[in-house]
Design goal:
With 235 residues, the protein is an alpha+beta fold. It has helices at residues 3-25, 27-64, 67-83, 93-119, 123-137, 217-220, and strands at 147-153, 158-163, 168-173, 176-181, 183-185, 188-192, 198-204, 207-213, 227-234. The protein contains 6 helices and 9 strands; from the N terminus they run αααααββββββββαβ.
């Protein structure tokens, strides 16, 4: 083994030991980190309920020899795995309940960390955790959507969105421009686009996912979106 390799391995070992030491020295941070991992696990389990239901739809269609329903179910599975798009024709009450419960638990963990840091006199750390909590759990803000997004739809159209942290949207579609605002309805972030058109926006793996309904009543009726797009560029 060369000297250079030995040096690199030593530095990696030192970094690992230092990180472990920090975690051991700060049980509050360690506990919050475990809570974040548990939150991710809970969300993944919630998503599994949707995926299992979609796979069951596909299995039933296959066993019945219904090609059209099988193709629809397979397309829904593909959309869900690639972009997190949940078919509204699918019962999602259990999924939403699991998500809400996970949010309650992680919020409690954040609050406990803030309280303990404050009691220990580590006010700056308490403030930093509070800011992280607020950005993560903010029920009204739209900071996660902030930016310039170019979204390519599967139907072929391309939209550009400029979204502020307050949910103000400037949208351009070919020669058409529109100003609108994001708003929340339960767990969904929606936007009225043109007359009688509705979009649902979400962030999935760092990309902006836009589901499009026309007419807008199809959304309220629980029908799947007519088109789905995802961002190909962010700034």
């Amino acid at each position: 083994m060369s000297t250079a390799v030995r040096v690199i391995l030593f530095l990696l070992l030192l970094t690992t030991l230092q990180s472990a030491s920090i975690a051991e020295d700060d049980p509050i941070e360690q506990k919050l980190s475990l809570a974040k991992l548990k939150y991710d696990d809970d969300i993944n389990k919630a998503r599994s309920t949707i995926l299992d239901a979609l796979k069951n739809k596909a299995r039933i269609a296959k066993d019945a020899g219904d090609l059209e329903k099988l193709e629809t179910a397979q397309a829904e599975i593909k959309d869900f795995e690639a972009s997190g798009v949940i078919p509204r024709s699918l019962p999602i009450k259990s999924y939403e309940t699991q998500r809400k419960l996970a949010r309650v638990k992680i919020e409690k963990s954040y609050n406990n960390a803030i309280t303990q840091y404050t009691k220990d006199g580590q006010v700056e750390l308490a403030k930093a955790i509070r800011q992280e909590r607020d950005e993560f759990l903010d029920p009204t803000g739209f900071k996660q959507f902030e930016g310039n997004w170019t979204v390519k739809f599967r139907g072929g159209s391309v939209h550009t969105y400029k979204i502020s942290d307050q949910g103000e949207v400037k949208c351009v579609e070919e020669n058409y421009k529109a100003d609108s605002n994001l708003y929340r309805r339960n767990e969904d972030v929606l936007m009225v686009y043109k007359k009688d058109k509705l979009e649902r926006h979400s962030i999935f793996r760092g990309k902006l996912i836009v589901e499009h309904w026309h007419p807008a009543a199809d959304y309220a009726a629980g029908r799947p979106p007519g088109d789905v797009g995802e961002s190909v560029e962010t700034k």
